[in-house]
C-alpha cells in the first residue's frame, strides 16, 4: 500500500530546509569540534564533555535524517494555490464551539506541519480534522468526547 503524501505549505517546507542547513552547516560542525577537543583530553571513559558531545552529535544527525525523510514524503502547496472558500480545508483558520465547553480556534495545516508543542494547529488527517473537513460555517455535528456526546459547531472559517 502506497503511503499518502503529507501536504505542507511552501513556507513550512522552506523552514525545514533552513533547519537542515543550520544543522549541517553550523550545529554539527560545532559539535564535531567540541568532540575533537574532548578526545584530546585522553581518558574518554570519564570525560563528560566527550560523552555529551557524542550524544548531541547523534541527536543532530537523527534530526537531519528525520527532516530529510519528511520532505521526501510531502506535497508542497504554494500560497497562491490556496483559494478562499467557506468550507474547512487546508490552511483555514476555524473557530469551533464545543457544547458545555469553550470555543477553540485552530489553523488547519498539512500533517507534516503539526507539532505536539503547538495545540493551535490541527491536521485534516487527525480525527477532529477528518470530522470537520469540508464542513461549512454554522454546521453542527456530534462527537464523542470523554464518553459523552458533545455538539460541535463551526462558528467561523477564515
Question: How helical, in percent, are the residues?
Answer: 25-40%
Number of domains: 2
CATH superfamily of the largest domain: Transcription elongation factor, GreA/GreB, C-terminal domain
The major β-sheet equals: 5 strands, mixed
Which structural class should the secondary elements be placed in?
Answer: alpha/beta
Which runs of at least 5 residues are low in confidence (pLDDT < 50)? none
Order of strands across the biggest sheet? Answer: 5-4-3-7-6
- Fraction of residues in β-strands: 25-35%
The string of secondary-structure elements, in order, is: EHHEEEEHEE
CATH class type of the largest domain: Alpha Beta
Overall 3D shape: elongated
Put simply, the count of helices is 3
Rg over CA atoms, rounded to whole Å, is 22 Å
The count of β-strands is 7
Average of the residue pLDDT scores:
81
According to CATH, the fold-level topology of the largest domain is Chitinase A, domain 3
Rounded to the nearest angstrom, the distance between the terminal CA atoms is 35 Å
CATH architecture of the largest domain: Roll
Mind explaining what this structure looks like?
The chain is of the alpha/beta class and 158 residues long. The protein folds into two domains: 6-77, Orthogonal Bundle (Helix Hairpins), CATH 1.10.287; 82-157, Chitinase A, domain 3 (Roll), CATH 3.10.50.30. It is built from three helices and seven strands; from the N terminus they run βααββββαββ. The chain has helices at 10-39, 48-72, 127-132, and strands at 6-9, 74-77, 93-98, 103-109, 121-123, 140-145, 148-157. The strands form two sheets. The protein has a five-stranded mixed beta sheet. A hairpin with a 4-residue loop joins strand 3 and strand 4. The two termini are 35 Å apart.
Amino acid at each position: 500500500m502506497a503511503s499518502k503524501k503529507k501536504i505542507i505549505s511552501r513556507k513550512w517546507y522552506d523552514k525545514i530546509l533552513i533547519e537542515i542547513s543550520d544543522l549541517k552547516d553550523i550545529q554539527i560542525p560545532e559539535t564535531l569540534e567540541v568532540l575533537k577537543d574532548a578526545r584530546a583530553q585522553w581518558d574518554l571513559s570519564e570525560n563528560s564533555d566527550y560523552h555529551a558531545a557524542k550524544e548531541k552529535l547523534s541527536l543532530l544527525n537523527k534530526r537531519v535524517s528525520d527532516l530529510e525523510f519528511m520532505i521526501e514524503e510531502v506535497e508542497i502547496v504554494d500560497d497562491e494555490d490556496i483559494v478562499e472558500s467557506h468550507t474547512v480545508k487546508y490552511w483555514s483558520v476555524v473557530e469551533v464551539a464545543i457544547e458545555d465547553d469553550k470555543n477553540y480556534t485552530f489553523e488547519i495545516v498539512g500533517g507534516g506541519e503539526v507539532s505536539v508543542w503547538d495545540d493551535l494547529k490541527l491536521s485534516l488527517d487527525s480525527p477532529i480534522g477528518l470530522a470537520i473537513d469540508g464542513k461549512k460555517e454554522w454546521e453542527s455535528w456530534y462527537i464523542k468526547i470523554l464518553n459523552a456526546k458533545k455538539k460541535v459547531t463551526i462558528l467561523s472559517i477564515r
